[in-house]
Design goal:
By secondary structure, the protein is an all-alpha fold. Helix content is 77%, strand content 0%.
Length: 259
Amino acid sequence: MLTDPLFYLVAIPALLIMGISKGGLGGGLGIVSVPLMSLVVAPSQAAAILLPILCVMDGFALWGFRGQYDKANLRTILPAAMLGIGVGAATYSYLSDSHIRLMVGLIALVFSLNWLYHRWRGNTLRAQPQNRLKGWFFGALSGFTSFSVHSGGPPLDMYLLPQRLPKGIFVGTTIIFFTVANYTKLIPYSLMGLLDSTNLMTSLSLMILAPIGVRLGMLLHHRMSDGWFYWLCYCLLLVAGIKLSFDGANALWWAASIG
């Protein structure tokens, strides 16, 4: 089990944010977890530690939002996610930690800056209908980014949010999507040796945060405005994105220079 106090100082708030997000408050804000944990451990290890905890969180979230989902969307995005996970597993060995840091950092930057821009502009967008082609594209992209660094939220949000589904239906649909995706990812993660004893024991030591985070999210979903929470998490995500993008790009530049 990891014993570095700095890791737990970062991992505990990161996992609570993920749980709160899954509980219905933050939507795709769970993307902040891997970038934060990647500041102190390799992204691949952060993703491996997080996956078993995510699976437990999914179980609690499924119960909390049982019966709330959009069947038509799930018929499109779930098969697409399986395709994306397959591509992610097939290409995983070709991506170094530096590549993954840069990828996570850029996703975090784009997602946070896009949100901040629209908040600043005060944009109100019309609801868009379902589109199977877009559903396949964003579903597959979500599966791919979810496989490596559990950052499938932004691509899925890009597809579902413009539809302006009822809040509970939106959350329930995303929960089912990521429950299927996360349990599917256990197979390639195990075959690739990412779920070793160190990572699993570390996951187990943090598992108590799963029901706590999800329960907090469910309470806040019904009782609290999420305005300040959004600002805090997106600003945190922006800082993490800048740091990871710089570290990843800098490492790749030095590797290219030496090579």
